[in-house]
Specification:
Elements: E1 2-7, H1 10-19, E2 24-29, E3 49-52, H2 55-59, H3 62-68, E4 73-74, H4 78-85, H5 87-97, E5 104-107, H6 110-117, E6 124-128, E7 137-140, H7 143-155, E8 166-170, E9 176-184, E10 188-190, E11 195-196, E12 199-201, E13 205-208, E14 213-216, H8 223-243, E15 249-259, E16 262-269, H9 276-280, H10 288-296, E17 310-317, H11 334-338, E18 343-347, E19 350-353, E20 356-359, E21 363-371, H12 374-385
Parallel strand pairs: 1-2, 1-3, 3-4
Antiparallel strand pairs: 5-8, 6-7, 6-8, 9-10, 9-15, 11-14, 12-13, 14-17, 15-16, 17-21, 18-21, 19-20
Helix pairs in contact: 4-5, 5-8, 6-7
Bound molecules: adenosine monophosphate and glycine.
Length: 406
């Protein structure tokens, strides 16, 4: 099977690696660190299966465009991708599907937004309605900061049009989990769950980022927990979408929080998570291409299987990430890291130069270590990451140090 992956990041590198075990892979446009990267646009590529990685092309209708060309596509159309493209719409879908989620309001008017903020206590959560490259969420205990953020969002100063509708949520607390469900429009099957580390610094300090690391499996996420999540969240959501005429074929990424009142859905994304994918897919022992093709055909095949071990992913980011990444530094140590047992390096923000790969974005590499236990996988991941160097490199040192227990 020839498979075309659309995207440029570490997630796409991990997809290419996993899909490459059983198929021929091209990645468009990919990056100079991903073998099989081509500049030809997806609409001009011949392949048996197209897998669209990032949310932006999905929200902009790339899957629809490819399907209109008669291509087999894994990824929702623009109608389903709205789950990620509009948080206010996503919350309405959750309400209709009866899925537990944080109490919220969505606003375009500042007076109404501030009045709603006054009904919240202790922890204030302000989100852009639209896409903001993972940066549009503020979680703070400081009401004044929340109020100021609302002003900046609504005026368009902070995030342009994406923030001009603002979603305000009650702040929830508890461990988080990422579950990636493969959906064929009606049915769904979960991949092995992962936990993501969203904050920039050790101890979950610093601003929210796209994700500084991940591990899989998560002891908290027993089979019973995942089954309950499928029954209470994923399948009712698919059914609700179906009633609205939306045939959702792709990944439904469910980000949830285990609150004292039980699990609540924080968000849906319409794509594989980054860096969760780099921790989940290396553990897959079945044919990913067959699974995604069956979902794309609307007839989900046999459920995926995973090894009994663990994977830990450590993201190497540039100085200044997430606010102002410094770029253009020469990267060393990728080959050395890759040559260690159980270690794989996935390339994201990299660019070619005559001297070798240089940094070209905030999150540059994801180093995944595998092992029989989370502890061993963690040792391998950090052994790999410690080989990687460039001036100003930053990475967390506590990824998977205390896995969340059941
Ligand atoms: P989102 O992109 O909506 O998942 O938000 C990014 C991160 O912000 C989540 O992974 C959580 O860590 C945090 N977050 C989002 N919503 C809430 C909430 N209602 N209460 C507490 N934290 C939240
Ligand atoms: N790791 C979070 C995300 O992919 O949105």
């Amino acid at each position: 099977m020839k498979i075309c992956i659309v995207g440029t990041g570490g997630r796409e590198h991990a997809l290419a690696h996993a899909l490459g075990h059983h198929g021929d892979v091209v990645v468009t446009p990919g990056n100079p660190g991903i073998p099989g990267s081509v500049v030809t646009p997806a609409t001009e590529i011949d392949a048996d299966l197209f897998v669209v990685g990032p949310e932006a092309p999905l929200v902009n209708g790339l899957a629809d465009q490819l399907r209109a060309q008669g291509k087999r596509v894994f990824g929702p159309g623009a109608d389903g991708a709205k789950l990620e493209g509009s948080k206010a719409w996503m919350k309405q879908v959750l309400d209709k599907a009866g899925v537990p989620t944080a109490r919220y309001g969505s606003f375009t008017d500042q007076t109404a937004a501030l009045a709603f903020l006054d009904q919240m206590h202790d922890l204030f959560v302000i989100k852009t309605d639209g896409l903001a490259a993972g940066k549009g969420v503020l979680v703070t205990t400081d009401r004044a900061e929340a109020a100021e953020a609302i002003g900046g969002y609504l005026s368009g100063d902070a995030f342009g049009a994406a923030g001009q509708t603002v979603v305000i949520e009650e702040g929830l607390t508890g461990p988080e989990l990422s579950v990636l469900a493969i959906c064929d429009g009606k049915n769904a099957v979960a991949l092995s769950p992962a936990q993501d580390f969203k904050r920039q610094k050790d101890g979950d300090l610093g601003p929210n980022t796209g994700g500084m690391g991940a591990y899989s499996p998560v002891p908290l996420a027993t089979e019973a927990v995942v089954e309950q999540l499928m029954d209470k969240a994923i399948l009712p959501t698919l059914a609700t979408l179906g009633r609205q005429g939306i045939d959702y074929r792709g990944v439904l990424y469910c980000g949830l929080m285990f609150t004292p009142e039980g699990p609540k859905v924080l968000e849906y994304n319409v794509r594989f998570g980054d860096p969760e994918t780099q921790a989940v897919l290396p553990r897959l022992t079945s044919d990913l291409g067959q699974l995604l093709a069956s979902a794309a055909d609307g007839q989900l095949g046999a459920p995926p299987t995973f090894d009994a071990g663990a994977a830990v992913t450590v993201v190497c980011a540039t100085e200044g990430y997430p606010e102002k990444p410094r770029t253009g530094d020469l990267i060393s140590g990728i080959e050395e890291a890759n040559s260690l047992p159980g270690v794989s390096v996935y390339c994201a923000g990299v660019k070619a130069s005559p001297q070798g790969l240089i940094t070209a974005g905030g999150r540059v590499l994801a180093v995944t270590g595998q092992g029989a236990s989370i502890e061993q996988a963690r040792e391998n991941a950090y052994a790999g990451a410690n080989n990687i160097h460039w001036p100003g490199i930053q990475r967390r040192t506590d990824i998977a140090a205390q896995p969340t227990q059941a």
